[in-house]
Structure prediction request, 688 residues.
Amino acid sequence: MNGWYEFSPARCWAVVVKEFIQMRRDRLTFGMMIGIPLLQLILFGFAINSDPRRLPTAVLLADRGPQGRTLLEAIRNSSYFDFVREVKSEAEARDALARGEVLFVVSIPEDFSRDLLRGDRPVLLVEADATDPAATSNAVGALGVLLDTALQNDLKGPLAYLGGAAGPVELRVHAKYNPEAITQYNIVPGLMGVVLTLTMILITGLAITRERERGTMENLLSMPTRPFEVLLGKIVPYILVGYIQVGLILVVARFLFNVPMAGDIGLLLAATLIFIVANLAVGVTFSTLAKNQLQAMQMTFFFFLPSILLSGFMFPFRGMPVWAQVVGEGLPLTHYLRIIRGILLKGNGLMDVAPDLWPVALFAVVVLVVAVLRYRQTLD
Amino acid sequence: MADELAIDVRGLTKRFGARTAVDGIDLQVRRGEICGFLGPNGSGKTTFLRMLCGLLRPDAGSGTCLGYDVIAETRSIKREVGYMTQRFSFWEDLTIAENLDFTARMYGVPNRRRAVRESLERLGLLERRSQLAGQLSGGWKQRLALAACLIHHPKLLLLDEPTAGVDPKARRDFWEEIHLLADQGMTFLITTHYMDEAERCHRLVYILEGKLLAHGTAAEVVAHARLTTWSVSGPNLARLAEQLRGQPGVRQAAAFGAALHVSGDDKAALEEAIAPFHTKEYQWRPIESGLEDVFIHLMDQSHSGGSP
Prediction:
């Protein structure tokens, strides 16, 4: 009781030495301590960009006059827009926007050059996918400034009167899907994917390592089972748990945050099943790789970090450099975010979400195969 | 069919890296036999059991277990073998009844509910069936593990130190149960460190550092060792033991209660060695060598590099 002042440096040092020895033995923890700062530095330092540029944009060119082309050139030069395709019709433009292939559609309407020269102030229509306000707001802001100066060179001499006070062109921006730019509309559905990723992987990650740590694995292995029976048996209960989470989040999203639900909830639930299975498969695979529960948790964290940073949940996906987008495309959360935001905010149907559905399914199958191959039927 | 072999393996070998845990063991066990498996810690007993029930893949050797190939037909073996691990390996967060029910499902036991109920009754676990396995004492855990291993009516039971940490009464009940089941034709391979348990086995196998050193009935094993043992009592036996050890002819001197057992494999040399200590202080008498004398002798012999 009164020995608090008895500090023994030798005993303290003994603990220090012991901790260092144990740290050296636990290679994975040591690797994580080195790896996580590196990973964060790379992701935050290089991949994440809160002022995204070179955003994929489609062009609907109904007028091929020189002024229209000048304008497009100016838009491209702003570096915010990257013209990735030309669409032929309104319907094609809508599809590209719905599927997230492009974030903007710039339309040069019919008779644009004629109307411009007549001084009729033609409309330059820009449709923006505003599901993620952070991704598009800077680009939209840049457009206004740009238009005032873009045509200055074309409108010289006798045409100088057109560059009057009101500007030669009327810019009309349609912020689609989330016109009021409410961040919650984007974040709340995204959170569903994030929560499912974290909990599903963690919960199953512990499932098999726990058996190993408690010594019950030896018993399980001595029974006449096949790996797939055990792995599937470990996954199924958590599908139910996942759906409870989904129900909870949807109710809160609807009634607390008033998140619009434009699409088919049945389709969302079906797509969610594939996503849940993909995450459970990751967890089970970690479980077969990890030696103990701590390692399984570390692996979960190692997977979770890029998932939330590179999937487009926290930062605009299109704003990241190409290599980061490639990594992001390999993560199920990236695709699921597109699916859920697409269904809830854009009212997307099966055909619209299909391009993001099959990568998730493929991911689940590949990871499950790894798990079955890694699952040891013996104690060797 | 009575003399059919339940276990018939030859040259079974398992290596972990550079260490050979089990080194070319041959073993035949007849159906209905209780075979005691002895040897010091780390001698390869657990590894051998695990190879028999398909938990480890042998690096060399071949043979059959219940007529199935030990390498190719492990799934068939698992269905008919019960394996009780050294460390309690049932689910501590399940109740007794839930553990039994799960095990019965895994083995596809017909009339599962009845089988579970009968198993609870037979082992006297009925009143405790809703108790969590993790809250049970050592003896009850052992009963549960045995009940679970028996639920699918295996033909062969592999028990790895089943009575470690169990009180004498529970141990005796346990062995009575084992003999009852053996009479019904079940085969047992049991590892143990207790000599009284070894003597309850039909046949014994002694292994050391992965090699089989002795086998046969208890009497055969003792006879085969050709060990002469003297018992001596008197004051300061620890010092006497020190003096005797290292004398030519004295293989070992070990305390047994108030007496010291002095053994050697050369009768004449041993008597010559102890002759100087035949003083008034000490009472010497020749005794039958016991199993324990033999096993300690086998252990020492190997460590001193003596002939097997």
